[in-house]
Amino acid sequence: MKQRLSWPNTKACINLQQDKVIIKVALTKNDKGGTLLLIRHGQTHANIDQIWHGVTDTPLTEEGRFQAQRMGRHVHSTYSAPSTVYASQLQRAVHTAGELGREVVSDPRLQEMDNGEWEETDFRFLQGEHDFFKRFSAEDDFCAPGGESRADV
Question: What is the pTM (predicted TM-score) of this model?
Fold first, then answer.
C-alpha cells in the first residue's frame, strides 16, 4: 500500500510505503522570498536493515556520509548559501546538515518520533503484527506502546 501526505503551498511530501518511508527533499518559498529546504539524513545501518530507529542515535554508514557530501555539493551548486542550518541533535542529522557548510543549530523539536517499545523493531514485524504503516498514516493518535503519535509531535 502506498500513501502520500502533502502540505498546502509546498512541494513537500512524504511517501509512505509498506516497508519503507521515503522522504523527498521539500522546497517552498515564503512570502519574503526565502527558501526552506528540508533534507533527510544519509543512510544508516538501521535503514539498510529496515529497522525502525526513531530516537536511537545511530551514525551514518560510509554510503550515508557519501550521500551527505553529495547533497552538500548539490545544494551549494543549486541554491544560494543557507543563512541558517537546523538539525535534530542526533548524529546522523548533524553530520548530514554539517555538509551544508554552516554551523548546525541543534533543535530537539526536530528529533524523530519516539517509537517507545517498538524502537529498533523490524519494519516487516511492525507491518505484519500491527498494520503499522496503514494505521500510522490513517490515525493521528496511533503510536507504539510508550511512544509518540503524529498528534503528539
Answer: 0.75
Q: How far apart are CA 126 and CA 4, in angstroms?
A: 19
- Helices 62-78 and 91-98 pack at an angle, to 10 degrees, of 40
Is 53 annotated in the active site?
A: no
Distance of CA 87 to the CA centre of its chain: 10
Instruction: Write down the catalytic residue from 41, 53, 95, 99.
Output: 41
Mean pLDDT per 10-residue interval, the chain, length 153 residues: 44 41 46 73 92 92 92 87 89 94 89 90 86 86 89 84
Q: 76, 103, 112, 117: which one is catalytic?
A: 112
Residue 74 annotated in active site: no
